[in-house]
Design brief:
Structural class of chain B: mainly alpha
Number of helices of chain A: 6
CATH topology of the largest domain in chain B: Cytochrome Bc1 Complex, Chain D, domain 2
Strand content of chain B: under 5%
Distance between the termini of chain A: 41 Å
Number of helices of chain B: 6
Oligomer: heterodimer
Number of strands of chain B: 0
Number of domains of chain A: 1
CATH class of the largest domain in chain B: Mainly Alpha
Structural class of chain A: mainly alpha
Largest interface: A-B, 11 and 18 residues
Largest sheet of chain B: none
Shape of chain B: globular
Number of strands of chain A: 2
CATH class of chain A: Mainly Alpha
Order of helices and strands of chain B: HHHHHH
CATH architecture of chain A: Orthogonal Bundle
Distance between the termini of chain B: 56 Å
Strand order of the largest sheet of chain A: 1-2
Chain lengths: 136, 153
């Protein structure tokens, strides 16, 4: 093997390794939600516009999703109560987002409970993710 | 249980209250699951800050955690509680009916901070006494040493 090739191969292997560090892509996470939403009668696909509206509105309680994740999810947010910095939600600027199913499920459960006093439906989650994935 | 037993047990419980204090306190105990799960909304508060009974109560009601849902699956809850109990404070709990959940309201916390002015507690960069990192620059590593304090100004 040429000496030059070695660093290149190493770099490539590293790149592939880094990609594989995430269990799934946001697209795969969205596909999973689409499968669940398709079981509801009348499902016509997800909407980024609906997702944005859901994300930025309150639903009976003091907080909206945007209270902690900001009106612009491509920048860092701040926990409404503790002031701890929260990394951006849009996968385009934060590659870790929506790549770990258990983490996604855990936080949808908690945060929907805080904001809506109930779980979010697959349609609501899919709309929100579609909105977040539309941000560049 | 008779009177004598009660007194004996009370004495035993009170005994280990003598503890290193003021600078020598170590908050170094750590555990991966605890570090990952209990540091997403605030720094992971060291187990030493509360007695075991308080941690047990808190871990049993994570879905209603100071006005927010911090629920975890059963396996993670059990694993984290074991770590918290093992490294909990051995100070005699303050006499009160219910276990203390907010250590920032304990006399210990307040006396460590009696030099902090009321104005500073209300500074928007601090907002709440629970926001340790606003003043303790290495709070994330359980380091509250006075050399690593920087007050917002």
């Amino acid at each position: 093997m040429l000496p030059l090739k070695t660093p290149l191969t190493m770099a490539l292997t590293l790149a592939i390794f880094t990609l594989n560090a995430y269990a799934q892509t946001p697209q795969e996470t969205l596909a999973g939600l689409r499968q669940q939403a398709a079981e509801t009668p009348g499902f016509q696909g997800f909407s980024a516009t609906r997702g944005e509206q859901f994300f930025k509105s309150t639903h009976g309680n003091d907080w909206s999703c945007a209270t902690c994740h900001t009106q612009n999810p491509t920048v860092s947010g701040k926990h409404a109560k503790t002031s701890k910095i929260i990394q951006p939600m849009a996968p385009a600027v934060n590659a870790e987002r929506f790549t770990d199913q258990a983490k996604v499920d855990k936080w949808f459960k908690r945060n929907c409970n805080d904001v809506l006093d109930r779980a979010c439906t697959p349609l609501e989650k899919g709309d929100v993710l579609t909105y977040l994935m539309s941000l560049k | 249980m008779n009177m004598k037993h009660t007194i004996l047990i009370a004495a035993l419980l009170a005994a280990p209250t003598v503890q290193a204090s003021g600078g020598g306190e170590s908050f170094a105990a750590t555990q991966p699951k605890w570090k990952a799960e209990c540091s997403s909304c605030h720094i992971a508060y060291p187990p030493k800050l509360l007695p075991a009974a308080s941690w047990k109560t808190m871990m049993g009601s994570l879905d209603k955690h100071f006005g927010t849902d911090a629920s975890l699956d059963a396996a993670a809850t059990t694993e984290i509680l074991a770590f918290l109990e093992k490294n909990a404070s051995r100070r005699k709990p303050e006499p009160s009916a219910k276990p203390v959940l907010r250590f920032t309201e304990t006399r210990w916390f307040q006396s460590e901070h009696d030099e902090v002015s009321a104005r500073l507690w209300k500074d928007p960069r601090v907002k709440s006494p629970s926001n340790c990192a606003a003043c303790h620059t290495k709070a994330e590593n359980g380091d509250f040493n006075e050399h690593n304090i920087r007050l917002p100004r």
